[in-house]
Design a protein that fits this description.
Layout lengths: L1 H14 L4 E3 L9 E5 L7 E2 L2 E2 L11 E4 L4 E7 L2 E4 L25 E3 L13 E3 L5 E3 L2 E2 L2 H4 L7 E5 L4 E5 L4 E4 L2
Parallel strand pairs: 1-2, 2-10, 4-5, 8-9, 11-12
Antiparallel strand pairs: 3-12, 5-6, 6-7, 12-13, 13-14
Length: 174
């Protein structure tokens, strides 16, 4: 009986996929690694970074504390500003006084290489064939009452990416 239970457990673990739904029962399809619930007016807060000089992973998205902007690494040493606003005055105290990176602070979501993935980051989606679905909020500039600097959501009304730099919302559309 014990051997049958072990075999059944191994088969079940083999069938599991690394897909996570936050504040929802399940993800929408097999191409999703991480998906947020879309019934509340909440967003994703990006990591606050004081020194991005050692960050080399293309596609990294962060909140740059030095100039209070949401940025992503487009290619080697080329950061793209998603905030656009030059008047941002954000309260960055949400991250606390100690902003030093903890090397062991990492969550990796992957259907295969999760335990061995060496990509640096706090949250790493390691599958090459899956993506993250942002929190969906109708008119975040109207419905998120007290947004935090570095917040990112998908605006379901304008059908755009919305980022908040601590002062204003910026909307991006392909």
């Amino acid at each position: 009986m014990r051997k049958i239970l072990k075999l059944a457990g191994l088969l079940i673990v083999g069938l599991l996929q690394a897909q996570i739904g936050i504040n929802r029962e399940n993800v929408s399809n097999g191409s999703v690694s991480l998906q947020f619930g879309d019934t509340e007016n909440k967003g994703l807060i990006l990591p606050y970074v004081t020194d991005k000089s050692n960050i080399t992973e293309k596609g990294t998205i962060l909140y740059d504390v030095s100039d209070r902007k949401v940025k992503y690494l487009k290619d080697a040493n080329s950061w793209f500003d998603l905030s656009v606003d030059t008047t941002g005055a954000a309260d960055v105290s949400i991250q606390g006084a100690d902003k030093t990176e903890q090397p062991g602070a990492k969550v990796c979501i992957s259907s295969g290489a999760g335990g061995t993935d060496t990509t640096k980051g706090i949250l790493v989606l390691a599958d090459a064939d899956k993506a993250m679905v942002l929190p969906k909020v109708a008119s975040p500039h109207l419905n998120i009452i007290d947004p935090s600097a570095g917040m990112m959501v998908y605006d379901t009304v304008k059908k755009q990416l919305a980022v908040y730099n601590g002062k204003v919302w910026t909307f991006w559309q392909p």
